[in-house]
Amino acid sequence: EVEKIQIKITSLGLTESRITADETIQQLFVECRLNNFLAEETPLSLPKPPGGQRIHYNYSTVINVDKEDNRAEREYLKSILLKPDLPADSLKFTVVSDPPEDEQDLECEDIGFAYVSLKEIFQKQRDIIEQDIDVFDSQDASAVIGKLTVTVEALSALRSVHEECKND
């Protein structure tokens, strides 16, 4: 039983919005974060796609949640399963604007957020495979600025954690 969460960030497409219109936003990368433990980001930032087109990251990463070495992550997963009102039960994907080489005084800027609920994966007993999730505008959480195609394979790890909860 391999105790890990596998994450793949396949591609990103943008709808017409302030993001596609903003010429200071040129290169994009994606960060994936589990609560406050762990942040991974795509090693490449790619040129912003025109509306309706996609950029492909095909980036995969693994979060280990085994008892021996990754107790904090595991305890966090337990808390997701045991505390129904815990707000932070999601993997958070952030689309980040990487300033162009010649504008190094500009900061990286978070332009959008997307979420995958680990609790929901467990409730539905179904991993998320190559699924389009909404990317919400960082300045207006009700506005969808694009779609991120992701895979999150967490079910077997969550089942293992759940078994352990029952045995505690």
From TrEMBL:
GO biological process, any: non-motile cilium assembly
Entry's Gene Ontology molecular function annotations: thromboxane A2 receptor binding
Gene3D superfamilies from the UniProt entry: C2 domain
A Gene Ontology term for the protein's cellular component: photoreceptor connecting cilium
Membrane-crossing segments per the record: none
Pfam families in the record: RPGR1_C (PF18111)
The RPGRIP1 C-terminal domain, residue ranges: 3-164
Highest taxon, organism lineage: Eukaryota
InterPro entries with a match to the protein in the record: C2_domain_sf, RPGRIP1_C, RPGRIP1_fam
PANTHER family in the record: PROTEIN FANTOM (PTHR14240:SF4), RETINITIS PIGMENTOSA GTPASE REGULATOR-INTERACTING PROTEIN (PTHR14240)
Name of this protein: FTM protein
Organism: Prunella himalayana
